[in-house]
Amino acid sequence: MAEVPATADVVVIGAGIVGNSLVHHLTRLGWKNVVQIDKGALPNPGGSTGHASNFIFTVDHSREITDITLDSVAQYKEMGVFTESGGFEIARTEERMEELRRRMSSAKAWGIEAELVSPEFVKEKVPFIEEDQFIGAFWTPGVGVVDSLRAGTIMRERALATGELTVVPTVEVTGLDTEDGPHGTRRITRVRTTGGDIEAKTVVIAAGVWSPKLGDMAGISIPLTPAVHQMISVGPCPQLAEKEGEISFPIVRDMDTFCYERQHGADMEVGSYAHRAILHEPEDIPSIEQAKLSPTEMPFTEDDFDPQLEQAYELMPELLGAEGAEIRYAINGLLSLTCDGNPILGESEVAGLWTAAAVWIKEGPGVGRAVAEWMTHGHSEIDLHHSDIARFHTHQKRREHTRLRTTESFIKTYGIIHPAEQYESDRDQRLSPMHDSQAKLGAVFFETAGWERPFWYESNAGLLEEYGDAVMPREHEWDSRWWSPIINAEHLRMREAAAVIDLSAFCIFDIEGPEALDVVQGTCVAQCDVAVGKVIYTPVLDAKGGFRSDLTVMRLGEDHFRVVTGGAHGMADRAWFSGHLPEAGTTTLTDLTDDVSTIGIWGPRARDIVASLTSDDVSDAGFGFLSCREISVGGITVLASRISYVGELGWELYVPMSQAADLWEALLEAGAPHGAVPAGIGVYGTTGRIEKGYRAYGAELDGERSIVEAGMQRPKVKAADFVGKEAYLAQRDADPQTVLCTLTVDDHTSASGVKRYMLGGEPILTRDGGSLTDGHGHHPYVTSAGSAPSLGKHVLLAYLPPEQATIGNELAVSYMEELYPVTVGSVDATPLLDPTNDRIR
Amino acid sequence: MILVLVEVSLTGEAVENSLEAITFARDLAAAGGGIPIDAVVVGVPGDDVVKALAEHGVRRVHALTGPAYDAYSGAAWAAGLMAVREKTGSVVVMASGTPRGMEVLAHVGARTALPMAANVVSFSSLSPFTVTRQVVGGQAREEMQLSQRPALFTIAGHAVQAAPADAPGTGELVEETPDVADADLVARVVSSEEPEPDLSGSLKSARVVVGAGRGAGSADGFGEILELADLLDASVGVSRVVTSLGWRPHHEQVGQTGSRISPDLYIPCGISGAIQHWAGCSSAKNILAINTDPDAPMVTKATHAVIGDLHEVLPAINEEIRRRRG
Amino acid sequence: MSVNPLVCVKRVVDSSGEVVLTEDGQGVDGRYAGFTMSAHEECAVELAVQVAAAGNGSATVMTLGDADAVEQLRAALAVGCTAATHVVADSQAFGPADVAREIAAVVRDHEAAGTPHELVLLGNDAADSGDFQVGIRLAYELGWPVVNGVSTVSVADGEVTASGAGADGHETYRLPLPAVVTILEGGVEPRYPTVPGRMKAKKARVEEREPGVAPTGASRLRLVLPPPTPSSVEILGEGPSAAPAVVDLFERLGVLAR
């Protein structure tokens, strides 16, 4: 039995593509005494890497995934294990062609060479394809295949060459020990294995489909589910056998039948994502001894595959039906799926215990580098916030949630997914106290962080007639899917009278104690040493000056601050602040999200409405902008905060959950005579903010963006130190490489005469379609898009090269492969609507 | 009485498996309070056979003779065996778990409409008579009741080690010439010849065999294995999974259903050692297992082992051989 | 006259990995290893297809098993069988005599229906229960002659010729049809399915039927796993560093000379 070293600076559990990449990048970044273990044998310990089909399509709608993929490709190429084959994604339907046009948008936005081509073009490169089975294709010449096992060995050997890595295969982890730290936290202390115990302060779980099992050992949730991807290998096919080498024909993704066909020597591998989701529990994966092939190559279930076989045969009858070509290998290969399709990376709630799981071959080396950087510097070059393990809310950590969501999403692996598409399964996890009342009003609920949030109210449909074409109706089904002109009607009513908005999804936590001021000062860019009762809007940066978040902080007492942030990113923010609590001190962080509801009321009549429900002074003099205090509204004591994300006079009212429904009814009732309506998140999150040029974390702001480039710098930088200050000061002194601008669409008419409305993610080009490149080498794309009904315009936000960032500059946006003229309206945070912010007063 | 079908080899000796069956029968006889053991052989046995059977405790040796037994027929042998069993009133009819032993007992089972237990390794109770037998290719065991008489079963190879009895039997030879119906002679061997040398011939007679199993990883994973075989002038033998995956040709398969090998040295690489495979290689004089799992059956049964991945270990061995050869 | 063999297969757990027993100890758990038919039966299917092709007939496959056993029928249909019969029943509840009786019933019914089988092929033994007797019991049910444990089968002029390794060397049998023959793997390479074959199999109709008689059972009490055997292995080392010790061993055994 192999024996492990007694101590390590870091233990990497897993020797698949991720673990191998991690040990390489960790040693490269200077880590010492690295120990890598795997329960299997090398070089193929039996995980998903060993049976991967190993091809890489580079274009994804997600920038984060694309960037990780591109970095991985660069690494594979450097190691000499990448073979470029080119790849087609073919369309059998016009709906798919539209999706491929959207894919062209992403390709241009991420700067990847791609082209829409005819069936004849495909036939020329793939002579055994039946070109009458499809109508067009998306051609990515840079697609290729890799030898992921070889890459793993190379990276492991490079790490070994530093002298800082010890690799111990065939030892299985039996336990992960933790000890209690301050503030109810825990930290990792020890990895127990069948080959002995390893004392370590840093441990990475890179164990693929087994990761949840390992997470359980330390009491953390790594919510992924092992799922089956079916693949068969047919051969020898004479058409392939006559070519030298592993691959000489482009890979074909038959998106509409959820299949791919990938040459492997003389065999054609046909893979499928079309079957039912076949999920397994990590505990049900066989041991190496029990498995026929490897633990992640489960027995093939033919019935699930048969329909795909037929479709594949239709597409390549001469090849798959060739004399002598037999189905020689067929597996149900296990891979990892998550509830949102993104990897699970970063430090868990157990300090020092990291994860790098739910990663595919195309992302492996990139993830290894990024996570190693994160472990070393506290941040990575590529923003990883969509993949941060801290993103999961309690309900998302349940296996049941993962199971239900992946069951629903599996079939969408090659599906056409609308950017606003909602899940159907496992909904209604978090309901605000107003939910029943909202449902009666015909609320259409969208989910954020498990919360069901009204996006618009059908009860406001009557406003459509009132506002007529000002609601900017959308003719095209795709543009209007998951959307309603009622959003714009609610918006117009808010600007005209007032709107009441349920913001229960806010993540709220209090920081209290003697070091509370130090904690917020040290994490927030804005000056937090303000008078009690002041509200601060502030960016939060990482050490390299990239955005961690933007949020509001209220000073409720000398030693008491309340942080309010968006639900979607709230868990990561909470983890960030928790991580900055002084270890020795008595300052605490208390999560109030489930105790406190938030209701917003904004609009020119908001003050009148609130005044009608309170005897407190809510005049501008008595309750100034950016201040907060407790008042009684309709007999309910609330913490009122005068702030606005929609550019209107009004308040966020923080109220105990138990009284929120009463407050909601009181506001609607009192508001009705004033013309107030309930308004949905469509207004709060898009139309209201976009008219005001307000930035959103995750769209305009992320770890790769700076305050300066986002146009959010204030005249002065506070004296107190804070995370990212040094970088921020340097950014202020340098010329920006890119500038966040607001653009308006000048003409929506497409070639077919249908007016089209961009939804986000589209590339910004010159008027004649030429590509633009900023100082980072990135190409501009739409970070947010939405109606600005009060302007009568469709507004886009995009980072532009500085030389293009001039008001009035005429450019174009490419949408579904057509150009639409746009004009730059703002080159900083100056809003297009009410630039002097009079409405807020 | 216990009746045991004994097979005699072409060279005129009682086969080892039959002696094992008799040894097993002695335990059963003792448990039953000293039941006598008779043997049935086909054809007139040589003196050595009778002597050996007596030494192993056989009381009487019934020799089936006559033209019906000139060529092998399972049905004819069964008819003869049943005639002896009726004459002797045996409560147990046994054979060794050889192809013929199995076949003849199955015929007896079909003729008597009684259950037949194949590949028994032990018995645990006389009443009800309960045996344990090999199933799933020897990887599992089944406890089975044989409550009717006569109890019919065959003894798995090497379930017991053949050993002479402390109290030898008398070994009285009795010729039997029971009638055999024509119908029982329809399916009989019409010719038997020395097997033609097939592709696996060199494997069966090889002095060194390098074996490879699932651990090879893929059809492309045999480079080092073939190289070692070349360096040692050895044959290549593979496990069942390797041929069923199409990685290597079928004639290289070693195991219960492939070739049975008996080299001086067998080097199984990445073979876990399922019993089917073991059945084909257990006669090797030395076994050097190369496996990542120190607890793999092949490692624990081997005479020598290296713990490690074959793809890492074999290149080093090949290099070392080349180095020593200069 | 055409030759229309019936080949009998059984859905069994693939036992090439470590065997896992079901909780009730009555069977082998197939969730990790999956299900297959035994190698003997794969060869029997191949021979049935070859015999049918040579005899201008068609090969029918049958099984007795639960609903999932249709997978094994389709596997046989994918490699050349053209008809399939499924006796839907829990195969664990059926002893060898029960199974033989059900096969015989299928043979008789097919004959009555005008699609007789002149030859029935089976595997020498099932990969799970290892009873070594179903084919022989079937022969007695039908009153047909039986040849056991052969690897090649051919039919000509109403006679079947079967041969394989036997106690006295390579043994050949020749007997008139109808007959039962049980197959030991090794005489023929079973083909893999082709894509068109698999598609044809998917669409083929499978005759489903109930067992004719209640089974008497297999007299099975339970399955157990054998105890590990003590080891006397000498570990020469771990990983590549063991190479010198290995080559020392080669020298000691005298297998290194050239």
From TrEMBL, chain A:
Residues 758-824 form the Aminomethyltransferase C-terminal domain. It comes from the Bacteria. Residues 434-714 form the GCVT N-terminal domain. Residues 9-374 form the FAD dependent oxidoreductase domain. Pfam families: DAO, FAO_M, GCV_T, GCV_T_C. Residues 377-432 form the FAD dependent oxidoreductase central domain. This is FAD-dependent oxidoreductase. It comes from Nocardioides glacieisoli. The lineage of its organism: Bacteria, Bacillati, Actinomycetota, Actinomycetes, Propionibacteriales.
UniProtKB/TrEMBL annotation, chain B:
One of its GO terms (molecular function) is electron transfer activity. One of its GO terms (biological process) is fatty acid beta-oxidation using acyl-CoA dehydrogenase. SUPFAM superfamilies: Adenine nucleotide alpha hydrolases-like (SSF52402), DHS-like NAD/FAD-binding domain (SSF52467). Pfam families: ETF (PF01012), ETF_alpha (PF00766). Its cofactor is FAD. Heterodimer of an alpha and a beta subunit. The electron transfer flavoprotein serves as a specific electron acceptor for other dehydrogenases. It transfers the electrons to the main respiratory chain via ETF-ubiquinone oxidoreductase (ETF dehydrogenase). This is Electron transfer flavoprotein subunit alpha/FixB family protein. It comes from Nocardioides glacieisoli. The lineage of its organism: Bacteria, Bacillati, Actinomycetota, Actinomycetes, Propionibacteriales.
UniProtKB/TrEMBL annotation, chain C:
Its cofactor is FAD. Residues 26-218 form the Electron transfer flavoprotein alpha/beta-subunit N-terminal domain. Gene3D superfamilies: HUPs (3.40.50.620). The keyword Glycoprotein does not apply. Keywords: Electron transport, Transport. It holds the Pfam family ETF. One of its GO terms (molecular function) is electron transfer activity. Heterodimer of an alpha and a beta subunit. The electron transfer flavoprotein serves as a specific electron acceptor for other dehydrogenases. It transfers the electrons to the main respiratory chain via ETF-ubiquinone oxidoreductase (ETF dehydrogenase). Belongs to the ETF beta-subunit/FixA family. This is Electron transfer flavoprotein subunit beta/FixA family protein. It comes from Nocardioides glacieisoli.
